[in-house]
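User: Please fill in residues for this 443-position structure.
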C-alpha cells in the first residue's frame, strides 16, 4: 500500500472502524484517484488534508457509503428470527407488566433487517398487540434514505414466505413495498457505532440486533461497540449478533445463551443453566479478528495445580482421549458438560457429533454437526462428516449438497479440528476431497 493510500485507509478506519484489508488496496487507490480528479484536488495530499479538516463533509458521507458493505436481505439467518418468535418474545410477554417493546437494529443497511423485525413483532400474538417500535441505525445516510422508502427487490425478499409477502407488502413495478403501518413503527437514524459516546441519550432497548457489523472492526473497536450496546440494553434485554460473529474473545459482560439453532447474548445475572461466563470463554479462543472455527485452543498438558478443578482444556483433552479409546458415552457426557460452559464453541458441537455418530445416533449427530457449522460455516471437514451422516440417514440429495459445499472449501488445512480429526482416525483433507468428488460424480 502506498503511503498516502495507507493514510487514507487509516483515516477511514478511525472514522468508521472499517478495516481496509490489503486485498482492497487497489480498489481504494482507484477510488481515491477518482475522488481527487472529480473534486479538483491538487493531489492526494490535498485530498487527505481536506478530509482531516472536514469530518462532517459530503465527501465523508460519500466515502462511508462507498466503503461499507451493505449485504443484507429479509429473514437473513432465519434461525434467529425463529428463536425470537418462538422463545424470546414469549418470555418477554410472560414477564412484562408494561406492554411496550423497544428494538434497536444497529447497522441496518437498507432496512432489510428492520423490516424483518417489524414483521416478526407485528405477527406475534401477544407482543404484536403492544406498543412496539424499532430504531434502525446506520452510518450510511444513502442506505438509510433507501431504507426509508421501504421498497425491496426480488433478491431482498427471496426468503420471505409467500404468505407473509402477500400480507405485509404491496407489489409494484419498483419492487415490494412494506406496508405503511409497519414502516411507521420503524425510525431510521444516522448513527456511527464507533462514535464515543454512542448517541442514544437515555434510550434503552429490550432487543438489539447487531448482526454482521462487528466482523469489519478490529477487536478493540468490537469491544468498545459492545460496551456501548451493554449501556443501552435493558437489564433483561437480548442481543443478537451475526451467526459467524462471537463475543468469545472479547471478555464482555454479555453472556451467551444457547437457543438450539442459534445464540443470543444477555447481561448477567440471569437465571437458569443456559448461561456461559465469557470469562471462561476468554481463554478458550484464538485472538483473531474474525470469529474462528477453533474457539478452543490446543489443549495444554494437565498441570498439577493441587486441588484446583481440571481446567476446560484439560477436560476437553480427556473427552478426546475418551473418543480415541472408544469410550463414546464418557465422551458424550464430557462434551455435553463442556458445551454447557461454552455453547459458542463450534469444535465442541463438532466433537459431540463425532461421539454421537459413534454411538449410532446419526440424527443427533447430524444436529450437532449442523450446530457446529452454524457457528463456523468454514469448517469443511465437519461438513464432510455431516454429508456422510446424511447419506447414512438416506438423505442422499442433501448429502450430495453438503459434499459439494465441503469440496469448495477443503484444502490444505491446519487447526485444532483438523488435528483432532486426524487423531481420531478420519481421512486427511486430500482423501476427503477424493471422496467428495466420487460422491458428487456418482450422483
Ligand atoms: C453487512 S451490513 C449488515 C446488515 C444487517 N445488519 C444484516 O445483518 O443483514 C453492515 C452494515 O453496517 C454498517 N456499518 C458499518 N460501519 C458502521 C459504523 N461504524 N456505524 C454504524 N453502522 C456501520 C454498514 O453501513 C452496513 O450497512
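Assistant: Residues filled in for all 443 positions:
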Amino acid at each position: 500500500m502506498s503511503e498516502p493510500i495507507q493514510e487514507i485507509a487509516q483515516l477511514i478506519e478511525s472514522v468508521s472502524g472499517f478495516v481496509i484489508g490489503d486485498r482492497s488496496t487497489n480498489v481504494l487507490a482507484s477510488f481515491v484517484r477518482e475522488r481527487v480528479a472529480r473534486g479538483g484536488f491538487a493531489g492526494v495530499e490535498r485530498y487527505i488534508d481536506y478530509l482531516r479538516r472536514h469530518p462532517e463533509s459530503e465527501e465523508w458521507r460519500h466515502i462511508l457509503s462507498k466503503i461499507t458493505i451493505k449485504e443484507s436481505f429479509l429473514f437473513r439467518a432465519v434461525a434467529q428470527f425463529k428463536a425470537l418468535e418462538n422463545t424470546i418474545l414469549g418470555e418477554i410477554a410472560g414477564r412484562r407488566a408494561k406492554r411496550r417493546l423497544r428494538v434497536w437494529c444497529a447497522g441496518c443497511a437498507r432496512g432489510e433487517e428492520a423490516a424483518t423485525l417489524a414483521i416478526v413483532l407485528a405477527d406475534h400474538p401477544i407482543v404484536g398487540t403492544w406498543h412496539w417500535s424499532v430504531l434502525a441505525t446506520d452510518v450510511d445516510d444513502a442506505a438509510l434514505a433507501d431504507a426509508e422508502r421501504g421498497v425491496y427487490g426480488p433478491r431482498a425478499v427471496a426468503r420471505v414466505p409467500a404468505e407473509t409477502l402477500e400480507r405485509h407488502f404491496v407489489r409494484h413495478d419498483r419492487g415490494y413495498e412494506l406496508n405503511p403501518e409497519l414502516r411507521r413503527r420503524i425510525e431510521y437514524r444516522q448513527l456511527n457505532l464507533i462514535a464515543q459516546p454512542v448517541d442514544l441519550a437515555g434510550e434503552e432497548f429490550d432487543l438489539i440486533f447487531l448482526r454482521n457489523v462487528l466482523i469489519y472492526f478490529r477487536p478493540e473497536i468490537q469491544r468498545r461497540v459492545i460496551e456501548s450496546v451493554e449501556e443501552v440494553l435493558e437489564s433483561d434485554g437480548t442481543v443478537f449478533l451475526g451467526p459467524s460473529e462471537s463475543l468469545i474473545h472479547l471478555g464482555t459482560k454479555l453472556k451467551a445463551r444457547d437457543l438450539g439453532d442459534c445464540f443470543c447474548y444477555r447481561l448477567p445475572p440471569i437465571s437458569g443453566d443456559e448461561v456461559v461466563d465469557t470469562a471462561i470463554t476468554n481463554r478458550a479462543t484464538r485472538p483473531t479478528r474474525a470469529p474462528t472455527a477453533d474457539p478452543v485452543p490446543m489443549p495444554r498438558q494437565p498441570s498439577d495445580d493441587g486441588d484446583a478443578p481440571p481446567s476446560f482444556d484439560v477436560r476437553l483433552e480427556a473427552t478426546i482421549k475418551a473418543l480415541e479409546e472408544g469410550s463414546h458415552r464418557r465422551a458424550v457426557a464430557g462434551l455435553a458438560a463442556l458445551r454447557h460452559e461454552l455453547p459458542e464453541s463450534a469444535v465442541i458441537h463438532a466433537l459431540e457429533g463425532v461421539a454421537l455418530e459413534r454411538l449410532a445416533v446419526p440424527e443427533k449427530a447430524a444436529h450437532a454437526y449442523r450446530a457446529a457449522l452454524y457457528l463456523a460455516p468454514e469448517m469443511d471437514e465437519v461438513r464432510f462428516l455431516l454429508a456422510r451422516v446424511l447419506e447414512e440417514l438416506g438423505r442422499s440429495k442433501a448429502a450430495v449438497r453438503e459434499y459439494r459445499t465441503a469440496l469448495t472449501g477443503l484444502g490444505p488445512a491446519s487447526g485444532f479440528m483438523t488435528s483432532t480429526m486426524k487423531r481420531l482416525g478420519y481421512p486427511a483433507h486430500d482423501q476427503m476431497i477424493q471422496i467428495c468428488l466420487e460422491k458428487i460424480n456418482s450422483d
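For context: Residues 16-18, 68-72, 76, 107-109, 112-113, 138-140, 143, 192-194, 211-213, 216, 242 surround S-adenosylmethionine (CB under 6 Å).
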